[in-house]
Design brief:
By secondary structure, the chain is of the alpha/beta class. It has 2 domains: about 15-245, HUPs (Rossmann fold, 3-Layer(aba) Sandwich), CATH 3.40.50.620; about 265-355, Tyrosyl-Transfer RNA Synthetase. Helix content is about 50%, strand content about 10%. It has helices spanning about 20-25, 40-45, 55-60, 80-95, 105-110, 115-135, 150-160, 165-170, 175-190, 215-225, 225-230, 265-275, 285-290, 300-305, 310-320, 330-355, 355-360, and strands at about 25, 45-50, 65-70, 100-105, 140-145, 205-210, 235-240. Strand 3, helix 4 (about 80-95) and strand 4 form a beta-alpha-beta unit. The radius of gyration is 21 Å and the shape is globular. The N and C termini lie far apart (about 45 Å). The mean pLDDT is about 95. The structure holds tryptophan and iron/sulfur cluster (SF4).
Length: about 375
């Protein structure tokens, strides 16, 4: 069966391995050893695939100009799913890449139909979380799509001239005018920083969720067509899995009961974790006898994506669960304790940063 990735859909991708065969995304495995510093998200295959990441890494090693460009849709409050991308960016910055981050407020307005003021509010919240989590604001460029310069918007018009409707439909399926513009805007996000206006050519890596691969394919095609005219080259990409919501589906702000928001209070977090879908058995007796299934457990995912950075601890939990040595109630309480500690520390930093007066130093806030 053929798979079509929908960058605007709400589902989790069940079988990441299909993406290798169907779209030519390469598995990350061979490159893990080549990273300048190891990172648990690569080792655990949370970052699972790439396009030409090997080439990007060797440019980085050679000291050539490299950058990371990604974006996010400001369609709700920041949750743990977003934090995974922020951690990835923090890592890429720490190994020496320049990081630039788009707030896709134009996309959220046109495709998700959010009011302007909300997109700006959510965008600023996200930027503040990114800085609080450890992205260095002096070394990171943040921007809202709608506050970009004319050179960036000019690219969107130029791109529209060399793309046909048939190509768009082959990549996205049925597509609306709003989505066409959002895709070309995203292509401009990814490619604009190669222009002279933005410092000239650099090797641009785009870390994204696998659902965004259609945009990457489109952008690579566009780069090929503008190599001669504008000197654009193909971007590089890495793909991460999504931490699932506590119902086992994609974590999303549109289902607030199953997402953990970074500003949720302790009681709310506790309640959410206690109600999470686990791989546990119906009774304690059965679980002791037969063991649980961590590979299908949203609480185990919290440990794997965020709470246990040490592989030994994670492996121990895995085997304790499989062998029925730990029950879900205890396991959830431990997760809650660890998560609260992380979130409390984070929130203290966040509070001093989340202030438009402070953030104005680092991002142009669009007017509306
Ligand atoms: N479309 C992306 C999302 O829904 C957000 C986005 C906008 C983006 N511009 C980008 C992602 C550039 C990567 C690169 O999350
Ligand atoms: Fe999940 Fe923990 Fe229960 Fe195992 S013991 S199924 S890891 S909650």
């Amino acid at each position: 069966m053929s798979l079509r990735l929908d960058p605007w859909g709400h589902f989790a991708i069940e079988e990441y391995s299909k993406l290798f065969e169907q779209f030519g995304i390469s598995p990350i495995d061979a490159l893990i050893e080549k990273l300048p510093q190891e990172h648990y998200m690569f080792k655990r295959r949370i970052v699972f695939g790439h396009r030409d990441f090997d080439k990007w890494l060797s440019m980085l090693k050679k000291g050539e100009k490299v950058a990371v460009l990604t974006g996010f849709m400001p369609s709700g409050h920041t949750h743990l799913g977003h934090l995974i991308l922020i951690e990835e960016l923090r890592y890429l910055q720490s190994i020496g890449a320049h990081v630039k981050m788009a707030v896709a407020d134009a996309e959220a307005y046109a495709v998700r139909r959010l009011p302007r003021d909300k997109t700006i509010e959510y965008g600023l919240e996200y930027i503040a979380h990114a800085i609080a989590w450890g992205l260095d604001p002096e070394k990171t460029e943040f921007y809202f799509q709608t506050a970009q310069e004319k050179e960036y918007y000019r690219l969107i018009q130029m791109f529209s001239r060399k793309i046909t409707m048939a190509e768009m439909e082959a990549i996205y399926g049925e597509i609306s005018p709003a989505k066409i513009i959002a895709s070309l805007t995203q292509a401009s996000d990814i490619l604009h920083l190669q222009l002279d206006k933005y410092g000239g050519y650099k090797h641009v890596l785009v870390p994204v969720g696998a659902d965004q691969d259609p945009h990457i394919r489109l952008t690579r095609d566009i780069a090929d067509r503008f190599e001669h005219e504008l000197g654009l080259k193909r971007p590089f990409s890495i793909y991460h899995k999504f931490i699932r919501g506590l119902d086992g589906k994609k974590m999303s702000s549109s289902k607030p009961d199953y997402a953990i928001f970074l500003l949720d209070d302790e009681r709310t977090i506790r309640k959410k974790i206690m109600n999470a879908l686990t791989g546990g058995r119906p009774t304690a007796e059965e679980q002791r006898r037969l063991g649980g299934d961590p590979s299908n457990c949203t609480v185990y995912e919290l440990y794997m994506y965020l709470l246990y950075r040490n592989d030994k601890e994670l492996l121990e939990l895995y085997s304790d669960c499989r062998n029925g040595r730990i029950l879900c109630g205890q396991c959830k309480r431990n997760a809650y304790e660890l998560l609260i500690r992380v979130i409390k520390e984070h929130r203290e930093k966040f509070e001093s940063i989340y202030d438009p007066k402070y953030l104005k130093q680092y991002v142009v806030i669009p007017d509306f």
